Amino acid sequence: MQRHFDQDLAHLKRQLLSMGSLVESQIEQALKALVNRDSDRAVTVVEQDHDVNALDVEIDDLCIQLLALQQPTARDLRFITTGMKISSELERMGDLADNIAQRALELNGEPQLKPYIDIPRMAHWTMRMVKDCLDAFVNSDPVLARKVCTDDDFVDELNEQLFRELLSFMLEDTRTITRAIRLTFVAKALERIADHATNIGELVVYMVEGKNIRHVAPSANC
Amino acid sequence: MEVHSLSLSSTPPTVPSRPIVPSLPQSRVTRDQSQAAPSVDAKIQVRNLDFYYGERQALFHVVLTVRTHSVTSFIGPSGCGKSTLLRCLNRMNDLVEGARAVGRVELDGTDIYGLDIDVTDLRKRVGMVFQKSNPFPKSIYDNVAYGPRLHGTKDKRTLDELVEHSLQGAGLWDEVKDRLTQSALGLSGGQQQRLCIARALAVQPEVILMDEPCSALDPIATGKIEELIFKLKDTYTVVIVTHNMQQAARVSNQCGFFLMGELVEFGDTKTIFTTPRDKRTEDYITGRFG
After folding, report:
1. Do B288 and A3 touch (CB under 8 A)?
2. Was domain A4-221 assigned CATH 1.20.58.220?
3. Most exposed residue of A64, A152, B208, B258, measured as fewest CB within 10 angstroms of its CB?
Protein backbone atom coordinates (compact mmCIF):
# COMPACT_ATOMS: atom_id res chain seq x y z
CA MET A 1 0.00 0.00 0.00
CA GLN A 2 1.33 3.43 -0.97
CA ARG A 3 1.68 5.64 2.10
CA HIS A 4 2.00 9.39 2.19
CA PHE A 5 4.34 8.77 5.11
CA ASP A 6 6.81 7.08 2.72
CA GLN A 7 7.37 10.41 0.99
CA ASP A 8 8.25 11.99 4.34
CA LEU A 9 10.66 9.15 5.09
CA ALA A 10 12.25 9.51 1.64
CA HIS A 11 12.66 13.23 2.30
CA LEU A 12 14.33 12.49 5.64
CA LYS A 13 16.70 10.08 3.93
CA ARG A 14 17.58 12.65 1.26
CA GLN A 15 18.31 15.28 3.90
CA LEU A 16 20.56 12.86 5.80
CA LEU A 17 22.42 12.03 2.61
CA SER A 18 22.85 15.71 1.75
CA MET A 19 24.28 16.26 5.21
CA GLY A 20 26.50 13.19 4.83
CA SER A 21 27.96 14.33 1.51
CA LEU A 22 28.49 17.84 2.88
CA VAL A 23 30.43 16.43 5.83
CA GLU A 24 32.42 14.11 3.55
CA SER A 25 33.41 17.09 1.45
CA GLN A 26 34.23 19.13 4.58
CA ILE A 27 36.66 16.47 5.79
CA GLU A 28 38.26 16.12 2.37
CA GLN A 29 38.63 19.88 1.93
CA ALA A 30 40.04 20.33 5.43
CA LEU A 31 42.73 17.77 4.68
CA LYS A 32 43.53 19.37 1.34
CA ALA A 33 43.79 22.74 3.08
CA LEU A 34 46.40 21.22 5.41
CA VAL A 35 48.37 19.11 2.96
CA ASN A 36 48.37 21.71 0.15
CA ARG A 37 48.82 24.57 2.65
CA ASP A 38 45.73 26.18 1.14
CA SER A 39 44.33 28.60 3.74
CA ASP A 40 41.50 29.86 1.50
CA ARG A 41 40.19 26.34 1.36
CA ALA A 42 40.40 26.09 5.15
CA VAL A 43 38.26 29.22 5.48
CA THR A 44 35.65 27.68 3.16
CA VAL A 45 35.50 24.57 5.38
CA VAL A 46 34.92 26.70 8.47
CA GLU A 47 32.13 28.56 6.70
CA GLN A 48 30.53 25.30 5.49
CA ASP A 49 30.02 24.21 9.07
CA HIS A 50 27.01 26.52 9.36
CA ASP A 51 25.28 24.58 6.57
CA VAL A 52 25.92 21.30 8.35
CA ASN A 53 24.59 22.71 11.63
CA ALA A 54 21.48 24.04 9.88
CA LEU A 55 20.82 20.62 8.36
CA ASP A 56 21.21 19.02 11.79
CA VAL A 57 18.51 21.28 13.22
CA GLU A 58 16.28 20.73 10.20
CA ILE A 59 16.59 16.94 10.39
CA ASP A 60 15.92 17.01 14.12
CA ASP A 61 12.73 19.02 13.57
CA LEU A 62 11.63 16.71 10.78
CA CYS A 63 12.16 13.60 12.94
CA ILE A 64 10.27 15.09 15.87
CA GLN A 65 7.38 16.03 13.58
CA LEU A 66 7.25 12.52 12.13
CA LEU A 67 7.32 10.96 15.59
CA ALA A 68 4.52 13.22 16.81
CA LEU A 69 2.30 13.08 13.76
CA GLN A 70 2.81 9.60 12.37
CA GLN A 71 3.46 7.63 15.56
CA PRO A 72 5.77 5.28 13.68
CA THR A 73 6.43 1.70 14.71
CA ALA A 74 8.92 -1.05 13.93
CA ARG A 75 11.30 -0.29 11.04
CA ASP A 76 9.82 3.17 10.49
CA LEU A 77 10.43 3.97 14.15
CA ARG A 78 13.96 2.59 14.00
CA PHE A 79 14.68 4.55 10.82
CA ILE A 80 13.54 7.86 12.32
CA THR A 81 15.24 7.47 15.71
CA THR A 82 18.40 6.28 13.96
CA GLY A 83 18.14 9.24 11.58
CA MET A 84 18.12 11.63 14.53
CA LYS A 85 21.23 10.03 15.95
CA ILE A 86 23.03 9.85 12.60
CA SER A 87 22.37 13.55 12.18
CA SER A 88 24.07 14.25 15.54
CA GLU A 89 27.02 12.06 14.61
CA LEU A 90 27.42 13.88 11.28
CA GLU A 91 27.18 17.24 13.00
CA ARG A 92 30.03 16.24 15.33
CA MET A 93 32.06 15.06 12.32
CA GLY A 94 31.47 18.47 10.72
CA ASP A 95 32.73 20.18 13.89
CA LEU A 96 35.87 18.02 13.80
CA ALA A 97 36.46 18.87 10.13
CA ASP A 98 36.12 22.50 11.17
CA ASN A 99 38.75 21.87 13.88
CA ILE A 100 41.12 20.38 11.32
CA ALA A 101 40.62 23.42 9.06
CA GLN A 102 41.40 25.76 11.94
CA ARG A 103 44.57 23.82 12.81
CA ALA A 104 45.48 23.98 9.09
CA LEU A 105 45.10 27.76 9.18
CA GLU A 106 47.52 27.89 12.13
CA LEU A 107 49.99 25.37 10.68
CA ASN A 108 49.99 27.02 7.24
CA GLY A 109 51.32 30.17 8.89
CA GLU A 110 54.49 28.36 10.03
CA PRO A 111 57.15 26.28 8.27
CA GLN A 112 56.03 22.70 7.65
CA LEU A 113 57.27 20.40 10.43
CA LYS A 114 57.60 17.32 8.25
CA PRO A 115 56.28 15.91 5.00
CA TYR A 116 52.65 14.92 5.47
CA ILE A 117 52.53 11.18 4.79
CA ASP A 118 50.82 9.48 7.72
CA ILE A 119 48.09 12.08 8.19
CA PRO A 120 46.85 11.75 4.57
CA ARG A 121 47.01 7.97 5.01
CA MET A 122 44.96 8.17 8.16
CA ALA A 123 42.57 10.62 6.47
CA HIS A 124 42.18 8.21 3.56
CA TRP A 125 41.01 5.44 5.91
CA THR A 126 38.80 7.76 7.89
CA MET A 127 37.10 9.13 4.79
CA ARG A 128 36.60 5.61 3.52
CA MET A 129 34.89 4.71 6.80
CA VAL A 130 32.66 7.78 6.48
CA LYS A 131 31.76 6.82 2.92
CA ASP A 132 31.13 3.20 3.91
CA CYS A 133 28.90 4.06 6.84
CA LEU A 134 26.82 6.36 4.63
CA ASP A 135 26.64 3.69 1.91
CA ALA A 136 25.59 1.17 4.56
CA PHE A 137 22.85 3.57 5.62
CA VAL A 138 21.63 4.21 2.07
CA ASN A 139 21.61 0.54 1.13
CA SER A 140 20.52 -0.74 4.56
CA ASP A 141 23.62 -2.93 4.50
CA PRO A 142 24.49 -4.37 7.93
CA VAL A 143 27.53 -6.24 6.56
CA LEU A 144 29.19 -3.04 5.39
CA ALA A 145 28.09 -1.32 8.61
CA ARG A 146 29.88 -3.98 10.67
CA LYS A 147 32.99 -3.64 8.50
CA VAL A 148 33.14 0.06 9.43
CA CYS A 149 33.28 -0.99 13.11
CA THR A 150 36.30 -3.24 12.52
CA ASP A 151 38.10 -0.66 10.36
CA ASP A 152 38.09 1.69 13.33
CA ASP A 153 40.82 -0.34 15.04
CA PHE A 154 43.21 0.39 12.18
CA VAL A 155 42.60 4.14 12.38
CA ASP A 156 43.18 3.99 16.15
CA GLU A 157 46.52 2.28 15.50
CA LEU A 158 47.54 4.92 12.96
CA ASN A 159 46.69 7.64 15.47
CA GLU A 160 48.82 5.95 18.12
CA GLN A 161 51.71 5.57 15.67
CA LEU A 162 51.49 9.21 14.63
CA PHE A 163 51.40 10.36 18.23
CA ARG A 164 54.62 8.46 19.02
CA GLU A 165 56.33 9.93 15.98
CA LEU A 166 55.31 13.49 16.85
CA LEU A 167 56.39 12.92 20.44
CA SER A 168 59.86 12.03 19.22
CA PHE A 169 59.96 15.33 17.28
CA MET A 170 59.01 17.23 20.41
CA LEU A 171 61.60 15.43 22.56
CA GLU A 172 64.30 16.09 20.01
CA ASP A 173 63.59 19.76 19.43
CA THR A 174 61.34 21.78 21.75
CA ARG A 175 60.80 24.40 19.01
CA THR A 176 58.59 21.87 17.22
CA ILE A 177 56.21 21.45 20.14
CA THR A 178 53.52 23.91 19.00
CA ARG A 179 53.35 22.51 15.47
CA ALA A 180 53.59 18.89 16.66
CA ILE A 181 50.77 19.40 19.14
CA ARG A 182 48.63 20.96 16.41
CA LEU A 183 49.31 17.94 14.22
CA THR A 184 48.34 15.59 17.05
CA PHE A 185 45.07 17.55 17.27
CA VAL A 186 44.51 16.90 13.57
CA ALA A 187 45.21 13.18 14.03
CA LYS A 188 42.95 13.08 17.07
CA ALA A 189 40.17 14.80 15.08
CA LEU A 190 40.49 12.16 12.35
CA GLU A 191 40.42 9.42 14.95
CA ARG A 192 37.24 10.93 16.46
CA ILE A 193 35.64 11.20 13.00
CA ALA A 194 36.32 7.48 12.55
CA ASP A 195 34.66 6.86 15.94
CA HIS A 196 31.56 8.73 14.80
CA ALA A 197 31.55 6.68 11.57
CA THR A 198 31.68 3.57 13.75
CA ASN A 199 28.72 4.86 15.75
CA ILE A 200 26.79 5.32 12.50
CA GLY A 201 27.73 1.76 11.48
CA GLU A 202 26.33 0.47 14.78
CA LEU A 203 23.17 2.56 14.33
CA VAL A 204 22.68 1.13 10.83
CA VAL A 205 22.88 -2.41 12.22
CA TYR A 206 20.16 -1.47 14.73
CA MET A 207 18.08 0.19 12.03
CA VAL A 208 18.19 -2.86 9.76
CA GLU A 209 18.24 -5.75 12.21
CA GLY A 210 16.76 -4.24 15.37
CA LYS A 211 19.86 -5.52 17.15
CA ASN A 212 21.77 -3.18 19.43
CA ILE A 213 25.51 -3.80 19.09
CA ARG A 214 26.67 -0.65 20.86
CA HIS A 215 28.80 -0.86 23.99
CA VAL A 216 29.44 -4.59 23.74
CA ALA A 217 32.75 -6.39 23.28
CA PRO A 218 34.22 -5.82 19.79
CA SER A 219 34.26 -9.56 19.06
CA ALA A 220 30.50 -9.70 19.70
CA ASN A 221 29.97 -6.52 17.70
CA CYS A 222 31.30 -7.41 14.37
CA MET B 1 -6.93 -33.46 20.80
CA GLU B 2 -10.20 -32.85 22.57
CA VAL B 3 -13.33 -31.87 20.72
CA HIS B 4 -16.05 -29.68 22.15
CA SER B 5 -19.42 -28.99 20.68
CA LEU B 6 -20.86 -25.58 21.38
CA SER B 7 -23.90 -25.88 19.20
CA LEU B 8 -27.16 -24.96 20.86
CA SER B 9 -29.25 -26.71 18.22
CA SER B 10 -31.35 -29.64 19.39
CA THR B 11 -29.87 -32.12 16.93
CA PRO B 12 -26.43 -33.34 17.90
CA PRO B 13 -23.88 -31.76 15.58
CA THR B 14 -21.53 -33.89 13.60
CA VAL B 15 -18.10 -33.10 14.83
CA PRO B 16 -15.16 -34.05 12.68
CA SER B 17 -12.22 -35.45 14.56
CA ARG B 18 -9.92 -33.36 12.42
CA PRO B 19 -10.36 -29.84 11.11
CA ILE B 20 -12.30 -30.02 7.89
CA VAL B 21 -10.69 -26.93 6.45
CA PRO B 22 -7.02 -27.13 5.52
CA SER B 23 -5.03 -25.16 8.01
CA LEU B 24 -2.70 -22.31 7.21
CA PRO B 25 0.95 -22.94 7.91
CA GLN B 26 1.73 -22.31 11.53
CA SER B 27 3.98 -19.40 12.31
CA ARG B 28 7.34 -20.05 13.90
CA VAL B 29 6.23 -18.28 17.06
CA THR B 30 3.18 -20.44 17.40
CA ARG B 31 5.19 -23.62 17.01
CA ASP B 32 7.80 -22.49 19.48
CA GLN B 33 5.19 -21.75 22.08
CA SER B 34 3.36 -25.03 21.58
CA GLN B 35 6.52 -26.78 22.68
CA ALA B 36 7.23 -24.49 25.59
CA ALA B 37 6.68 -25.62 29.16
CA PRO B 38 3.74 -23.98 30.93
CA SER B 39 4.72 -20.68 32.41
CA VAL B 40 4.42 -20.30 36.19
CA ASP B 41 2.51 -17.01 35.90
CA ALA B 42 0.10 -18.25 33.24
CA LYS B 43 -3.52 -17.32 33.88
CA ILE B 44 -4.92 -18.56 30.60
CA GLN B 45 -3.29 -21.01 28.25
CA VAL B 46 -4.68 -21.53 24.78
CA ARG B 47 -3.41 -24.77 23.34
CA ASN B 48 -3.80 -25.57 19.65
CA LEU B 49 -7.21 -23.99 19.43
CA ASP B 50 -9.15 -24.31 16.18
CA PHE B 51 -12.50 -22.62 15.98
CA TYR B 52 -15.31 -23.02 13.48
CA TYR B 53 -18.45 -21.11 12.67
CA GLY B 54 -20.30 -23.97 10.97
CA GLU B 55 -18.06 -25.08 8.11
CA ARG B 56 -15.94 -21.95 8.19
CA GLN B 57 -12.75 -22.14 10.23
CA ALA B 58 -12.13 -18.87 12.06
CA LEU B 59 -9.05 -19.79 14.14
CA PHE B 60 -6.15 -22.05 13.23
CA HIS B 61 -4.01 -23.78 15.87
CA VAL B 62 -3.80 -20.80 18.19
CA VAL B 63 -1.27 -21.23 20.96
CA LEU B 64 -0.67 -18.49 23.51
CA THR B 65 -0.33 -17.78 27.19
CA VAL B 66 -2.05 -14.90 28.96
CA ARG B 67 0.06 -13.92 31.95
CA THR B 68 -1.57 -13.20 35.25
CA HIS B 69 -1.79 -9.52 36.32
CA SER B 70 -0.89 -8.27 32.90
CA VAL B 71 -2.65 -6.72 29.93
CA THR B 72 -2.67 -8.80 26.76
CA SER B 73 -3.87 -7.24 23.52
CA PHE B 74 -4.99 -8.82 20.28
CA ILE B 75 -4.61 -6.79 17.09
CA GLY B 76 -5.26 -7.48 13.44
CA PRO B 77 -7.49 -6.46 10.56
CA SER B 78 -11.24 -7.03 10.62
CA GLY B 79 -12.21 -10.67 10.42
CA CYS B 80 -8.81 -11.92 11.54
CA GLY B 81 -10.24 -13.86 14.48
CA LYS B 82 -9.13 -11.68 17.38
CA SER B 83 -12.65 -11.14 18.76
CA THR B 84 -13.47 -14.80 18.17
CA LEU B 85 -10.52 -15.80 20.32
CA LEU B 86 -11.50 -13.29 23.01
CA ARG B 87 -14.99 -14.74 23.11
CA CYS B 88 -13.54 -18.23 23.35
CA LEU B 89 -11.88 -17.26 26.63
CA ASN B 90 -15.21 -17.17 28.52
CA ARG B 91 -17.19 -19.28 26.09
CA MET B 92 -19.29 -16.40 24.81
CA ASN B 93 -19.16 -18.17 21.47
CA ASP B 94 -21.39 -20.90 22.94
CA LEU B 95 -24.22 -18.52 22.12
CA VAL B 96 -23.46 -18.70 18.39
CA GLU B 97 -25.27 -21.51 16.70
CA GLY B 98 -23.04 -24.00 14.90
CA ALA B 99 -19.89 -22.70 16.54
CA ARG B 100 -17.41 -25.22 17.86
CA ALA B 101 -13.95 -25.25 19.30
CA VAL B 102 -11.27 -27.90 18.91
CA GLY B 103 -8.38 -27.74 21.31
CA ARG B 104 -7.96 -26.50 24.87
CA VAL B 105 -8.36 -23.22 26.69
CA GLU B 106 -7.11 -23.53 30.25
CA LEU B 107 -7.92 -21.14 33.06
CA ASP B 108 -5.51 -21.77 35.93
CA GLY B 109 -4.73 -25.13 34.36
CA THR B 110 -8.35 -26.30 34.00
CA ASP B 111 -9.85 -26.72 30.54
CA ILE B 112 -12.82 -24.34 30.37
CA TYR B 113 -14.35 -26.50 27.64
CA GLY B 114 -14.33 -29.48 30.00
CA LEU B 115 -17.60 -31.32 30.59
CA ASP B 116 -17.82 -30.41 34.28
CA ILE B 117 -17.41 -26.67 33.74
CA ASP B 118 -20.23 -24.43 34.97
CA VAL B 119 -20.34 -21.76 32.28
CA THR B 120 -22.07 -19.23 34.55
CA ASP B 121 -19.32 -19.62 37.10
CA LEU B 122 -16.73 -19.36 34.32
CA ARG B 123 -18.21 -16.05 33.15
CA LYS B 124 -18.21 -14.80 36.73
CA ARG B 125 -14.48 -15.49 36.87
CA VAL B 126 -13.88 -14.17 33.35
CA GLY B 127 -15.93 -11.00 32.91
CA MET B 128 -16.43 -9.07 29.72
CA VAL B 129 -16.79 -5.48 28.57
CA PHE B 130 -18.14 -4.86 25.09
CA GLN B 131 -17.53 -2.35 22.32
CA LYS B 132 -20.79 -0.54 22.91
CA SER B 133 -21.59 0.29 26.50
CA ASN B 134 -24.77 -1.52 27.42
CA PRO B 135 -26.04 -0.33 30.80
CA PHE B 136 -29.37 -1.73 31.92
CA PRO B 137 -32.23 0.78 32.01
CA LYS B 138 -31.90 0.92 35.77
CA SER B 139 -30.22 3.15 38.32
CA ILE B 140 -26.45 3.39 38.49
CA TYR B 141 -26.53 1.48 41.78
CA ASP B 142 -28.74 -1.29 40.44
CA ASN B 143 -26.55 -1.71 37.38
CA VAL B 144 -23.53 -2.44 39.52
CA ALA B 145 -25.46 -4.49 42.08
CA TYR B 146 -27.10 -6.58 39.36
CA GLY B 147 -24.41 -9.23 39.13
CA PRO B 148 -23.83 -9.72 42.89
CA ARG B 149 -27.60 -9.95 43.44
CA LEU B 150 -27.85 -12.54 40.69
CA HIS B 151 -25.15 -14.51 42.43
CA GLY B 152 -27.08 -14.38 45.72
CA THR B 153 -25.76 -11.36 47.61
CA LYS B 154 -28.74 -9.78 49.37
CA ASP B 155 -27.28 -7.95 52.36
CA LYS B 156 -27.62 -4.22 51.70
CA ARG B 157 -24.44 -3.24 53.46
CA THR B 158 -22.42 -5.79 51.54
CA LEU B 159 -24.00 -4.60 48.31
CA ASP B 160 -23.30 -0.94 49.20
CA GLU B 161 -19.66 -1.78 49.79
CA LEU B 162 -19.42 -3.78 46.58
CA VAL B 163 -21.03 -0.99 44.55
CA GLU B 164 -18.71 1.65 46.01
CA HIS B 165 -15.66 -0.54 45.63
CA SER B 166 -16.50 -1.44 42.04
CA LEU B 167 -17.26 2.14 41.04
CA GLN B 168 -13.99 3.24 42.62
CA GLY B 169 -12.20 0.45 40.80
CA ALA B 170 -13.65 1.72 37.54
CA GLY B 171 -12.64 5.29 38.33
CA LEU B 172 -16.28 6.45 38.34
CA TRP B 173 -17.15 6.80 42.04
CA ASP B 174 -16.33 10.48 42.43
CA GLU B 175 -18.43 11.37 39.39
CA VAL B 176 -21.56 9.43 40.39
CA LYS B 177 -21.52 9.04 44.18
CA ASP B 178 -24.19 11.73 44.59
CA ARG B 179 -26.54 10.31 41.99
CA LEU B 180 -26.44 6.57 42.46
CA THR B 181 -30.21 6.29 42.25
CA GLN B 182 -30.43 8.11 38.93
CA SER B 183 -30.74 6.24 35.65
CA ALA B 184 -27.51 4.91 34.19
CA LEU B 185 -28.75 6.00 30.78
CA GLY B 186 -28.16 9.63 31.79
CA LEU B 187 -24.39 9.08 31.96
CA SER B 188 -22.07 10.09 29.13
CA GLY B 189 -20.71 7.45 26.76
CA GLY B 190 -17.39 7.26 28.58
CA GLN B 191 -19.10 7.09 31.97
CA GLN B 192 -21.45 4.38 30.72
CA GLN B 193 -18.47 2.34 29.57
CA ARG B 194 -16.79 2.74 32.95
CA LEU B 195 -20.10 1.75 34.56
CA CYS B 196 -19.99 -1.44 32.50
CA ILE B 197 -16.47 -2.03 33.76
CA ALA B 198 -17.70 -1.42 37.34
CA ARG B 199 -20.52 -3.89 36.69
CA ALA B 200 -17.96 -6.45 35.52
CA LEU B 201 -15.81 -5.78 38.59
CA ALA B 202 -18.78 -6.18 40.97
CA VAL B 203 -18.83 -9.97 40.61
CA GLN B 204 -15.13 -9.97 41.53
CA PRO B 205 -13.76 -11.60 38.41
CA GLU B 206 -10.18 -12.76 37.92
CA VAL B 207 -9.97 -11.94 34.24
CA ILE B 208 -11.59 -9.07 32.33
CA LEU B 209 -12.04 -9.38 28.58
CA MET B 210 -12.50 -6.14 26.69
CA ASP B 211 -13.75 -6.11 23.12
CA GLU B 212 -12.95 -2.73 21.55
CA PRO B 213 -13.85 -0.91 24.78
CA CYS B 214 -12.95 2.55 23.48
CA SER B 215 -14.02 2.45 19.86
CA ALA B 216 -17.18 4.49 20.54
CA LEU B 217 -15.49 6.98 22.87
CA ASP B 218 -13.86 10.37 22.44
CA PRO B 219 -10.12 10.77 23.14
CA ILE B 220 -10.61 12.04 26.72
CA ALA B 221 -12.92 9.17 27.67
CA THR B 222 -10.54 6.79 25.87
CA GLY B 223 -7.64 8.16 27.92
CA LYS B 224 -9.55 7.52 31.15
CA ILE B 225 -10.36 3.94 30.15
CA GLU B 226 -6.72 3.34 29.17
CA GLU B 227 -5.53 4.65 32.54
CA LEU B 228 -8.08 2.41 34.17
CA ILE B 229 -6.85 -0.63 32.24
CA PHE B 230 -3.34 0.16 33.40
CA LYS B 231 -4.48 0.15 37.04
CA LEU B 232 -6.80 -2.86 36.69
CA LYS B 233 -3.92 -5.17 35.91
CA ASP B 234 -2.67 -4.85 39.50
CA THR B 235 -5.77 -6.74 40.64
CA TYR B 236 -7.02 -8.50 37.53
CA THR B 237 -5.75 -10.06 34.33
CA VAL B 238 -6.91 -8.06 31.32
CA VAL B 239 -7.27 -9.18 27.71
CA ILE B 240 -8.21 -6.50 25.20
CA VAL B 241 -9.11 -6.56 21.52
CA THR B 242 -8.53 -3.27 19.76
CA HIS B 243 -8.41 -1.83 16.27
CA ASN B 244 -6.31 1.00 17.61
CA MET B 245 -2.74 -0.21 17.39
CA GLN B 246 -1.41 2.71 19.38
CA GLN B 247 -3.83 1.80 22.14
CA ALA B 248 -2.48 -1.76 22.15
CA ALA B 249 1.02 -0.27 22.28
CA ARG B 250 0.11 2.03 25.16
CA VAL B 251 -1.82 -0.30 27.43
CA SER B 252 -0.66 -3.86 26.91
CA ASN B 253 2.27 -5.88 28.15
CA GLN B 254 1.88 -8.68 25.61
CA CYS B 255 0.46 -8.40 22.16
CA GLY B 256 -0.72 -10.89 19.56
CA PHE B 257 -1.11 -10.13 15.87
CA PHE B 258 -3.75 -12.15 14.02
CA LEU B 259 -4.22 -12.56 10.31
CA MET B 260 -6.85 -14.74 8.66
CA GLY B 261 -7.37 -16.78 11.81
CA GLU B 262 -3.69 -17.38 12.41
CA LEU B 263 -1.76 -15.99 15.34
CA VAL B 264 1.15 -14.65 13.31
CA GLU B 265 3.20 -13.30 16.18
CA PHE B 266 2.82 -13.09 19.94
CA GLY B 267 5.25 -11.49 22.35
CA ASP B 268 6.12 -8.51 24.49
CA THR B 269 4.35 -5.42 23.19
CA LYS B 270 7.57 -3.43 23.17
CA THR B 271 9.17 -6.04 20.91
CA ILE B 272 6.16 -6.28 18.59
CA PHE B 273 6.14 -2.51 18.10
CA THR B 274 9.88 -1.97 17.74
CA THR B 275 11.36 -5.15 16.30
CA PRO B 276 8.64 -7.54 15.12
CA ARG B 277 9.96 -10.85 13.84
CA ASP B 278 7.40 -11.53 11.14
CA LYS B 279 7.19 -9.35 8.05
CA ARG B 280 3.38 -9.54 8.09
CA THR B 281 3.32 -8.06 11.60
CA GLU B 282 5.73 -5.35 10.52
CA ASP B 283 3.65 -4.52 7.44
CA TYR B 284 0.48 -4.33 9.51
CA ILE B 285 1.74 -2.19 12.36
CA THR B 286 3.54 0.20 10.03
CA GLY B 287 0.42 0.59 7.88
CA ARG B 288 1.93 -1.06 4.80
CA PHE B 289 -0.58 -3.85 4.96
CA GLY B 290 -3.17 -4.14 2.23
Report:
1. yes
2. yes
3. A64
